[in-house]
């Protein structure tokens, strides 16, 4: 039984990417679906290659060298640089276990390639693929699958079923041609993922802002309620103070009467004085004394009325001043309440706009 020149030694499935040659930063997907990625061993040239075929073209045709390094950049994604192809390949796996298996196999193949190079430089010769891989537990046959028993039929050892010349030529042609397949949907996927992250961040910021606005709204409501209570208290106080003022205004309504009464009494006093000091034919001492006593009484009464009048006027002025102060206080409280209500209205409008803008 003849052995084929190349044999698959490991196979898995993953989404294949290549670095954008223009930016050297963005990934370009190689297809819409996961592709089969395999390690091949070339017994004739004693080299190892990573090969992935999409349709009729080779997406990956990378010869593993001892200088290569496979790097895990996330739980399901890994990459390596191929200086010969002047590119960087990336693989996205379905699970972290598949990524770990591929990375371990990469390390084994790289070590086998290093030993093969050393033996080649020392003049040694590997007689078979199995001999070159025996110390690294990477047997060339049968095929090892990283995706479970359902994938074991993807490749079979070529030592058991060697392809014919036509199949071999077609495989060589496929491996020699490297190109990138349809990639647009993967690019859109990454763009949408980036946009989703930005939207998620914006939503978190909007939620934080909304929580802050709600706190401010509650504070404004509490302040407005406090101002309402203050206005009610001031109105009640003004009402309570208005009642005594009204009572004080009742005597003030008789001010004119009091003044008229004082004037009348003054006239009577003057008349009595004139009568007392005027000539009389038969002066009576007793009547004169009575008249003088009456005049004194009237003067005393007049002084009392004047004092009462001044006291009433002072009380009236004080009541009017107190009422003006109460009115001014109520006016200031009403203005402050209007300002708070306006701020509350603006706060509600801001919350409404924020709710409409949130996705």
UniProtKB/TrEMBL annotation:
CC per GO annotation: basal part of cell; cytosol; glutamatergic synapse; postsynaptic density
Keyword Endoplasmic reticulum: no
UniProt-listed PROSITE patterns: WH1 (PS50229)
Superkingdom of origin organism: Eukaryota
Feature: compositional bias, Basic and acidic residues: 281-293
Pfam families xrefs: WH1
UniProt-listed SUPFAM superfamilies: PH domain-like
UniProt KW keywords: Coiled coil, Cytoplasm, Phosphoprotein, Synapse
Any one biological process term the GO annotation gives: negative regulation of calcineurin-NFAT signaling cascade
CDD domains: EVH1_Homer_Vesl
Domain WH1 as annotated: residue spans: 1-113
Localization terms from the record: Cytoplasm; Postsynaptic density
Family that this chain belongs to: Belongs to the Homer family.
Protein name: Homer protein homolog 3
Organism the protein comes from: Ictidomys tridecemlineatus (Thirteen-lined ground squirrel)
């Amino acid at each position: 039984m003849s052995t084929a020149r190349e044999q698959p030694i490991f196979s898995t499935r993953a989404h294949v990417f290549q670095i954008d040659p223009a930016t050297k930063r963005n990934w370009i997907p190689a297809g819409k679906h996961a592709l089969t990625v395999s390690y091949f061993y070339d017994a004739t040239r004693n080299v190892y290659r990573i090969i992935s075929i999409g349709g009729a073209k080779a997406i990956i045709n990378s010869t593993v060298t001892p200088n290569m390094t496979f790097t895990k950049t996330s739980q399901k994604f890994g990459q390596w640089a191929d200086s010969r192809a002047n590119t960087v390949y990336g693989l996205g796996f379905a699970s972290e276990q598949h990524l770990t298996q591929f990375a371990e196999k990469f390390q084994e193949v790289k070590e086998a390639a290093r030993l093969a190079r050393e033996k080649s430089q020392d003049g040694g010769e590997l007689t078979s693929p199995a001999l070159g891989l025996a110390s690294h537990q990477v047997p060339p046959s049968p095929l090892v699958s990283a995706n479970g028993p359902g994938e074991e039929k993807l490749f079979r050892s070529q030592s058991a079923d060697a392809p014919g010349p036509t199949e071999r030529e077609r495989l060589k042609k496929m491996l020699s041609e490297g190109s990138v397949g349809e990639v647009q949907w993967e690019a859109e996927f990454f763009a949408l993922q980036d946009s989703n992250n930005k939207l998620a961040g914006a939503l978190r910021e909007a939620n934080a802002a909304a929580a802050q606005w709600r706190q401010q709204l509650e504070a404004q409501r509490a302040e407005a309620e406090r101002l309402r209570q203050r206005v009610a208290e001031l109105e009640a106080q003004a009402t309570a103070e208005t009642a005594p003022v009204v009572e004080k205004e009742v005597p003030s309504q008789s001010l004119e009467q009091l003044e008229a009464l004082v004037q009348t009494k003054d006239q009577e006093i003057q008349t009595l004085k004139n009568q007392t000091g005027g000539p009389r034919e038969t002066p009576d001492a007793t009547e004169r004394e009575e008249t003088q006593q009456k005049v004194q009484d009237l003067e005393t009464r007049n002084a009392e009325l004047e004092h009462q009048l001044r006291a009433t006027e002072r009380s009236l002025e004080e009541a009017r001043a107190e009422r003006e102060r109460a009115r001014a206080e109520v006016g200031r409280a009403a203005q402050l309440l209007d300002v708070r209500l306006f701020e509350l209205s603006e706060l509600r409008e801001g919350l409404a706009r924020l709710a409409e803008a949130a996705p």
